[in-house]
Amino acid sequence: MGSVMTSLPLVFDAPRRGRPPTHLADLDADGRRSAVTDLGLPAFRADQLARQYFGRFVGDPAAMTDLPAAAREQLAGALLPPLLTEVRSVATDEGTTRKTLWRLHDGALVESVLMRYPARAGSKERITVCISSQAGCGMACPFCATGQGGLTRNLSTAEIVDQVRAAAQVAASAELGGAPGRLSNVVFMGMGEPLANYGRVVAALRRLVDPAPNGFGLSRRSITVSTVGLVPAIGRLADENLDVTLAVSLHAPDDELRDTLVPVNTRWKVAEVLEAADAYAARTGRRYSIEYAMIRGVNDHPWRADLLGDLLAPRLAHVNLIPLNPTPGSPWDASPKAVEREFVRRLEAHDVPVTVRDTRGREIDGACGQLAATP
Ligand code: SAH
Questions:
Q1: How many angstroms does the Cα of residue 8 sit away from the middle of ligand 1?
Q2: What is the DSSP code (8-state) at residue 248?
Q3: Nearest CA to ligand 1 atom 25
Q4: Full-model pTM
Q5: 19 found inside a domain
């Protein structure tokens, strides 16, 4: 079958390219203070900067008016280099879904997607940003546009964090279809495999959960790290005491099929991935998510639903079915609705909680698996 079936190599180590300049968001509190005192400025200026950045989502030094102009210039040069340049933003769903294409210092491109979900009976308004952890991805999943484009490089901690800051700033303005809101959720489901960029992603997670002025103070459970299943890294993440939510992109309950849909399965099998996720859930005491793209005639068979149900029934897991989003050159489509309903029914018959993801942003190529960052 066409080009999407020819398998790309798995790439774990990102190409080494010119490092992005150091930024405030790369540093912890001590690092920030010593960077500021190295400039010959008093250490409290570091806290002032951090309060602007993490507490008020200000990224542009010119807007930090509580700092004296001379110090501002010096600090900006050393600690607030522009990392993300907006190439364009496109909106859909009456302005409540917004995809932004960013250019990085070396020309690499990444995307992030901001989504606002209105309050419903029993649930508060949610504003979620889906962010990228790498430019491109080395995991080579054949149904994912990012995976088919290969890996360009890892993002720095600050390049990851600044996507969240920019999103929080937009949420707090009136630019996201309605009254000013508050960013509530962050999902590492944009471009890249977060656990293949482990150290920088973990540092970014600390900036997201630490209270201001050290971070944005987001709730741990409202942050989700999604992985193809890098088993050793899932174990390490459990030991970080971060207690963020884990999602595993499974897409098949059997190794034979998963070897082809999620090529990293040739290293770590379904059983190993689920055991690692179980250990993670045992630590946090909360369910993990299983991501499952419904691909017509490929992974949507009733017997696979039963097999998945058998595997997950004894586990602290929740299934998120994602109707397959179209990607360029792919011969695959989403499962018919009736097939999807039967899949859901069988999982529920096994007492496995399941939801079907509302695929926001398809019209702007901003849905799961569609991020490819073409300028
Ligand atoms: N690399 C990580 C983070 C990306 S998350 C991971 O794979 O988990 C993006 C999610 O969208 C993953 O669950 C991925 O498998 C899924 N996805 C990729 N391509 C898709 C497509 N064409 N349609 C629906 N979901 C897709």
A1: 16
A2: E
A3: 368
A4: 0.95
A5: no
Ligand 1 within 6 A of CB of 289? no
Count of structural domains within the chain: 2
- 248's CB contacts (< 8 A; 6+ apart) are 226, 227, 228, 229, 273, 274, 277, 288, 289, 290, 291
- Domain ranges, residue 110: 85-364
Q: Indicate whether 56 and 159 sit together in one domain.
A: no
2 assigned to some structural domain? no
Those residues whose C-beta lies under 8 Å from the C-beta of residue 235, and which sit 6 or more positions away, are 276, 279
CA atoms within 13 A on the CB side of 91: 10
CATH of the domain at 317: 3.20.20.70
Query: What percentage of the chain exceeds 70 in pLDDT?
Result: 98
Residue nearest to atom 5 of ligand 1 (CA): 189
Q: Which of 111, 159, 193, 291 is catalytic?
A: 111
Q: How many other β-carbons are positioned within 10 Å of the β-carbon of residue 154?
A: 28
The string of pLDDT tens digits covering residues 157-186 is 999 999 999 999 999 997 887 788 999 999
For the question of residue 368 being annotated catalytic, the response is yes
Nearest protein Cα to ligand 1, atom 4: 189
Tokens of 107: 């020309």
Whose C-alpha lies nearest to ligand 1, atom 26?
369
CATH number of the CATH domain containing 42: 1.10.150.530
Which of 41 and 366 is assigned the larger pLDDT? 41
Q: Is the pLDDT of residue 17 over 90?
A: no
Is the CB of 288 within 6 Å of ligand 1?
no
Q: From the CA of 368, how far away is ligand 1's center (Å)? A: 5
pLDDT tens digits, 230-240: 999 999 999 99
Comparing 95 with 132, the larger pLDDT belongs to 132
Say how many Å lie between the CA of residue 251 and the centre of ligand 1: 9
